[in-house]
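Q: Convert this sequence to structure tokens.
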Amino acid sequence: MITVTDAAASKIKSLLEQQGKPEYGLRMRVVGGGCSGLQYQLNFEEKANPTDRVLETKGIKIFIDMKSSLYLVGSELDYVDGLMGAGFKINNPNAKSTCGCGESFQA
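A:
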């Protein structure tokens, strides 16, 4: 469904350990909002909801609700750390356009 780069998996593990929650997973959501109409939300949760799709890869768990999974199919979760800033980046082949800041998209 989605792929996770080594850099993203490493950063997720590191953040979970820093927060003392190594058993938690990453929730990936697509919600309405942002300049282009849809935006991504990432946060840590203890467990998946009963209707979530659960991906376990590279030692991490990712929880995706059914609605969000429609927008995230084929996406790649990456973590970049450069001179212009650091953060998670979602490379989404379903995005027809993105806003200038890269925080929202249109499908």
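The domain at 3-97 is CATH 2.60.300.12 (Hypothetical Protein Aq_1857; Chain: A;).
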